[in-house]
Amino acid sequence: MLETFNIIMKINNINQQSKETLLTPRFYTTNFEEMSKLDISNNQEEFEALLQEFRADYNQQHFIRKTAFNNSQALINKSAKSLFVEFLERSCTAEFSGFLLYKELSRRLKNTNPILAECFLLMSRDEARHAGFLNKAMNDFNVSLDLGLLTKHRKYTFFAPKFIFYATYLSEKIGYWRYITIYRHLEQYPEYRIYPIFRFFESWCQDENRHGDFFAALLKSQPNLLNSWQSKLWCRFFLVSVFITMYLNDCQRSNFYSAIGLDSRQYDMQVIRKTNESASRVFPVALNVDHPKFFQYLDLCASTNRLLINIQHSNYPLKIIYKISLYLKIAWLCFKLYMIHPVNSKGIWETIK
């Protein structure tokens, strides 16, 4: 498989090449009628300031391929190449997913909330640039995603608007910390910069950060999403969900991080701490990532997930029963993570100061 990299990915065989799982990037839809009724008047100034930043389009000239890309794929060794292409594919799918959701929200809100509509339109512009840039990078390896066909054939997951706000805020913020952490590491150790795309991560992550700020403003404009006891439970749920998803994905791909000089576990620990800190500026609670059991539970989830992957490709006689027991174990560990007593966000900032 490592020897044959002249594959063109088409939608009719995408299930064979990249099977969709609970950890696969997904496409989302929501209740557009409910979104159209949002009242953002109590945070109008912040939205207007954000809109000015989006209009400025600081990265208009950033995503332009240069000669550094010429034959750069030849510098990546065979053992890292498949992992790197998978990284590009997953990233492209995630960015394109954001583009589709934001574009549709812009269209649906145009007549009812022009400020939000324009913000979503300009964020969809950013996501389209990211997806297009990643897809061009995949072409360097003779691989491509047919984004048009992907739009028609990919399953869409419904999320209520408030869940879109929580999840996308965290997704954008964790994206920022992932990109900037890799960028800073490769600035310090340029010998691990195996492909020119990493040079673009500094400005790229600023798009993610601005998008996160937009969803933070949306959450703040709806006080019931931050000030109720239910909101504290949902904030904890989405923090745990996003961190577990990243941790399991990255543990499966530790060889990719090794190829760029990173330890996947240490990398994830740093990203989780930074994202948790960022979320504490908006969410009423944050996770207690310093609890001695926190990363132990994540490690147990990762090792159990590895067993699941191995069982999937085995001829184990009681395969289904064993898989169910492993899924239940992961669910139990997730519950135990959730039940670690959270930290009041105010308390976090008093500690940091």
UniProtKB/TrEMBL annotation:
It holds the Pfam family Rubrerythrin. Keywords: Chlorophyll biosynthesis, Iron, Metal-binding, NADP, Oxidoreductase, Photosynthesis, Plastid. It comes from the Eukaryota. It catalyses: Mg-protoporphyrin IX 13-monomethyl ester + 3 NADPH + 3 O2 + 2 H(+) = 3,8-divinyl protochlorophyllide a + 3 NADP(+) + 5 H2O. Pathway: Porphyrin-containing compound metabolism; chlorophyll biosynthesis. GO terms for biological process: chlorophyll biosynthetic process; photosynthesis. Its EC number is 1.14.13.81. Its cofactor is Fe cation. Residues 86-219 form the Rubrerythrin diiron-binding domain. NCBIfam families: AcsF (TIGR02029), PRK13654.1 (NF010172). HAMAP family: AcsF. Belongs to the AcsF family. Catalyzes the formation of the isocyclic ring in chlorophyll biosynthesis. Mediates the cyclase reaction, which results in the formation of divinylprotochlorophyllide (Pchlide) characteristic of all chlorophylls from magnesium-protoporphyrin IX 13-monomethyl ester (MgPMME). This is Probable magnesium-protoporphyrin IX monomethyl ester [oxidative] cyclase. The lineage of its organism: Eukaryota, Rhodophyta, Florideophyceae, Hildenbrandiophycidae, Hildenbrandiales. The gene is acsF.
